[in-house]
Structure to design on (331 residues):
């Protein structure tokens, strides 16, 4: 899978200064154009002296305009680069979002923005003859790959979090999963999971050097209808130690300002690679000394949950990065 999808978004947005620098460079061509009239002065005995003033303004007006071929060349180069970038995005998970090093890419030599470095991501092999979850012959979006193989791996340097009590296969029991919720919410959710088509839960947890704890769960149901009916991942989710949830303001702002086209997958998208995303944060001011953020991913017969907790405040970049990468693995 490719690692260029987030970088694709940044590459397009940061391409604007290149076009600006092109327009600033065009006046340098003026001396070349201006030298043409000096090399061929009009004869003093010209029979129509009134015609001279008309030709001078035309030459002066032509000076600032760059040659059409050059403008077409610049435009072709920019759009060719954009097409290549978005073609790479469509191929799979982008390397740019899994790796923080961007200085090797032209136009992206910016400082570290806090993203984590993940191992190279790849989806597990499907059983012979099984369709893709977003394939035209799989209308319900059923995932036939092993559920544990679709879990987002821990980033480089992270330590396993034993709070996610998964077995050697990565499977998590219902009771272990429900420990993420307040005691008063568990009984009702357990009954819902047992009666409403739950097949399997897979989970993984890790802690990074800055103290951020990440718990990722995938819940596989018998069909997408059961995923839509599950009420354990929304505004009203009662997570342990969290008083209330609100929309993630950074995510919502990106969605509102960047999602002007349904053909592009920006980090603020409500639907990313065929996955319906909802992103929440603990209502501020945070009660206690930790903040929690929650990402809910619904795609076909699988519900994904990304829960991050950190003392002070959860950083937006690695949280959104984790949500998007998990979304791509599911799609």
């Amino acid at each position: 899978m490719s690692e260029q999808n987030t970088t694709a978004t940044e590459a397009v947005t940061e391409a604007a200064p290149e076009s600006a620098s092109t327009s600033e460079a065009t006046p340098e061509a003026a001396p070349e154009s201006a030298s043409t009239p000096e090399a061929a002065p009009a004869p003093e005995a010209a029979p129509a002296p009134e015609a001279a003033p008309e030709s001078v303004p035309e030459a002066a007006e032509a000076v600032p305009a760059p040659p059409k071929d050059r403008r077409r060349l610049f435009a072709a180069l920019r759009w060719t680069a954009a097409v290549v970038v978005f073609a790479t995005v469509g191929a799979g998970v982008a390397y740019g979002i899994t790796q923080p090093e961007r200085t090797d890419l032209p136009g992206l030599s910016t400082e570290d923005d806090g993203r984590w470095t993940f191992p190279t991501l790849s989806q597990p092999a499907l059983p012979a003859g099984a369709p893709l979850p977003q394939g035209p012959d799989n209308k319900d979006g059923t995932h036939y790959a092993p559920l544990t193989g679709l879990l987002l791996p821990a980033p480089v340097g992270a330590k396993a979090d034993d709070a996610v009590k998964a077995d050697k296969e990565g499977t998590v029991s219902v009771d272990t999963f429900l420990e993420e919720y307040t005691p008063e919410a568990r009984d009702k959710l357990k009954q819902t999971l047992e009666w409403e088509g739950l097949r399997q839960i897979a989970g993984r947890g890790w802690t990074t050097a800055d103290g951020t704890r990440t718990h990722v769960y995938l819940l596989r149901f018998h069909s997408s209808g059961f995923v839509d009916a599950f009420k354990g991942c929304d505004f009203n989710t009662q997570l342990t130690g969290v008083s209330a949830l609100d929309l993630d303001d950074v995510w919502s702002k990106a969605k509102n300002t960047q999602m002007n086209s349904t053909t592009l997958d920006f980090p603020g998208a409500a639907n990313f690679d065929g996955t319906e995303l909802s992103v929440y944060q603990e209502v501020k001011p945070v009660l206690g000394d930790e903040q929690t953020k929650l990402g809910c991913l619904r795609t076909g017969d699988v519900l994904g949950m990304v829960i991050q907790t950190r003392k002070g405040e959860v950083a937006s970049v690695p949280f959104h990065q984790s949500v998007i990468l998990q979304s791509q693995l599911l799609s």
Summary: The longest strand covers residues 198-207.
